[in-house]
Amino acid sequence: MAAVLLGLLLAAPVLQVSSGPVRVARNATVPLVLWHGMGDSCCNPFSMGALKKIIEEEIPGIYVLSLMIGKNVVEDEENGFLLDVNTQVSMVCRQLAQDPKLQGGFNAMGFSQGAQFLRAVAQRCPSPPMRTLISVGGQHQGVYGLPRCLGETSKICNIIREVLSRAAYSDLVQKHLVQAQYWHDPLNDLYRKYSLFLADINQERAVNETYKKNLQQLEKFVMVKFLRDTVVDPVDSEWFGFLKAGQAKETETLQESVLYKEDRLGLAAMDKAGKLVFLSADGDHLQFPEGWFHKNLLPFLR
User: pTM to 2 decimals?
Assistant: First the structure.
């Protein structure tokens, strides 16, 4: 089943950049770690590769590490669908810890699912320290729908949605389909009980004080929501909002959620300290003009 889903999903949207402040000591640049989204790879010359080049041209001397999850770009793309997220996060934590260029700290920028994966890195692996986390279209409360998984017929989307709705929390699907690990069903308690990844990093079962402490070490947590997003459902997840519990129509903001009101993850404290930044882009998922990137995101990297 996992192989079939991989074939269906390989046409998923990737980052599209159309042409068109961090405290720095001793004039040094802060290294940057990038994690791509579903269906993309570390080095795609039309997405992550192009973005890496733009950043290196705008910030001379910056060290940019675009994460490859696997031995090559083919494995990297496949692992975005099939490799257990917790395994991916552990792999990245080891890679960052062994990179001498990152030991003084780094900024991180994640695209789509790569954003919540990098948040897991911040919560689980505080050394080397992540300074600023920029989430570009990340789904921090997960997803409960695939409105345009291929951009073709709704029949294919419905098949995938049906699999996730009926079997997302089975042991087989949880361990072999990445997207199941951040599938968030608000209608029952299976998500809280059986989600191997998202329920853990969002403190759904218990409050891990280490996660809470580590996340609050960030200087800034920047979240970008795409106002015309046809991929992420609900799009509120990109600003850490989600559907209200027990139904699948009404949404609530982060500030209205139990997670925030009980401050289970430290987000309320970060908000009050001015560490949370909410930005929006007037485009579809991961699509923005280069000028928007220069104006809104580059200042956090300089």
Answer: 0.90
